[in-house]
Design a protein that fits this description.
The chain has 125 residues and is an all-alpha fold. The protein is built from five helices and no strands. Helix 1 packs parallel to helix 3 and helix 2 packs antiparallel against helix 3. The longest helix is centred in the N-terminal third of the chain and has 20 residues. 33% of the residues are buried.
Length: 125
Amino acid sequence: MPSIENKGALYFVTEQACCLAQAQGRETDDFRACQAAAEYLAGGDAETMAAFTERTGTIKRDPDADYDTEQYEGKRKDVSDAVSAMNVLGTADDTPEQVRAPLLKVADIIAAFYDMENVVTAIPA
């Protein structure tokens, strides 16, 4: 089962993957980075990954359509927390090398999507 921090990050990774699937399709480096990040954040939980696959699998490619993201009070803080968590994981020594780049790439994609490129992160020294 993913940690609380990873669940928050996984939510935004899934939303971003759905948006990318709609805009670009699922056969892109960006979508594959989301998938790799989701697998790591899910921590081996098959049910969590099944939910990711189900959500992203129902999205039809339509680059002209707008993807409606959920809007709620506190979303900017949640996005900031998720981006920060992925940046920390993407630079952590105990994160497997093959997942570091996808985590950092997806953090950048999400920050850009929400126009939050200047999110200050708590990257350990």
